[in-house]
Design goal:
370 residues, mainly alpha, hpI Integrase, Chain A, 3-stranded antiparallel sheet, two-stranded antiparallel ribbon, 49% helix, globular
Length: 370
């Protein structure tokens, strides 16, 4: 049994995580302070949970090898490098998990990157005297929206596992049509259409509320940052975006609102659970993935929310959208595509959407869906 365990706490709609020592039953102070610090950074509950798990894996690994953080920091460069490299191999072998699942290299690297963020937190809080010696400063350069050369410095570990380069899978239009016809209700059809037509993340879509976020007549939907969603849905990066939908999706949306009007008006959210003991409550991410697995069982087609975001991006790229517009629509935030860097006006995005839907749509037979 692992010595350290994760606990989840709810304060209203706010989610917190802590790490407890199962031998003493005390809360482990420094890791929990770090998690509280991360929770105040407006990251999503799911991201916070992943960070907690990443930290938990490392703490239990240290316990298993009989070391602590101070001892790791005191190691010379070569032995420190060996330590973190062996930890990556430990993760890659699946020994951090009861299921013994073997994660991808990028997943192992992300687990270790979280550990390094924890080390930086300890250093910033003056709880340790230095960062790991194996962290090296790197600089990347890019050209901003005005053609100015910009530089950004960051710390990295040269022993990260080699990235397994692969193109993100993209849903195909034919597959989307097949899945739409295989859906058993209007909610699931509307959900698929919105993911394909807006490029919004699934967490963003599940946070859409009827009042203020849905403009049926204007064929627009909006995602906003909120940290009080009952289903823990969250717009990433504390941002707000709008998207235009096609007239076909507008018709499906209208039919959905009419068919489930009584349940929808009894709460705030656009997407709700339709049956069972939680009927009428906001739809959660887990239920969406269960729905997609059922569609896979029926059709043999694998489609994920992220594949539908890829579909959105590739279709717009084929239609001539510039990379800045696509990045803005997807809500990307990176060294090269931040909100301040892009400077894309909302009107420009809406005009591009209108032009796209005039020429393209998921040629849906509305009569067959409603």
């Amino acid at each position: 049994m692992n010595r350290y365990q994760m606990e989840k706490l709810k304060d209203g709609t706010k989610t917190f995580y802590l790490i407890r020592d199962t031998e003493t039953m005390e809360i482990v102070r420094e890791p929990t302070k770090y998690l509280m610090f991360r929770s105040r950074a407006n990251i999503s509950p799911n991201t916070l949970r992943q960070e907690t798990r990443s930290l938990l894996f490392y703490l239990n690994y240290l316990e298993g090898i009989g070391k602590n953080i101070s001892e790791i920091l005191a190691l010379p460069y070569d032995r420190q490098f060996q330590h973190f490299s062996e930890y990556l191999q430990f993760l890659k072998a699946g020994r951090h998990s009861r299921r013994m699942a073997t994660p991808k290299n990028a997943t192992c690297n992300s687990y270790l990157a979280c550990v390094f963020r924890y080390f930086r937190f300890l250093k910033d809080m003056e709880l340790v005297p230095e960062l790991p010696k194996v962290l090296k400063e790197r600089a990347v350069s890019y050209t901003n929206h005005y053609g100015r050369r910009m530089y950004h410095k960051y710390l990295t570990f040269p022993g990260y596992l080699k990235k397994e380069y692969s193109e993100g899978r993209c849903a195909k239009k034919e597959a989307i049509l097949t899945l739409l016809l295989a859906c058993t209700n209007l909610r699931d059809r509307l959900l698929l259409l919105l993911m394909a037509e807006t490029g919004f993340r699934i967490g963003e879509i599940l946070g859409i509320r009827l009042a203020g976020d849905v403009d049926l007549a204007g064929k627009k939907v909006r995602v906003r940052f909120r940290d009080d969603n009952m289903n823990e849905a969250r717009a990433k990066n504390a941002e707000e975006r709008s998207a235009l939908i096609s007239k076909e999706t507008q018709h499906v949306l209208a039919a959905y609102l009419a068919e489930y009007a009584e349940m929808l008006l009894a709460q705030e959210y656009l997407f709700i659970i339709l049956t069972g003991k939680n009927k009428g409550k906001p739809l959660g991410v887990g239920t969406v993935y269960a729905m997609l697995r059922e569609l896979e069982r029926k059709t043999g087609l694998v489609v994920t929310p992220h594949m539908l975001r890829h579909y959105f991006a590739n279709e717009r790229r084929k239609d001539g959208w510039g990379i800045e517009l696509i990045s803005k629509a997807l809500g990307h935030r990176s060294l090269l595509t931040t909100e301040k860097y892009l400077h894309v006006e909302k009107e420009e995005l809406i005009n591009a959407s209108m032009a796209y839907f005039e020429k393209n749509s998921i040629a849906v037979d509305i009569g067959g869906l409603i």
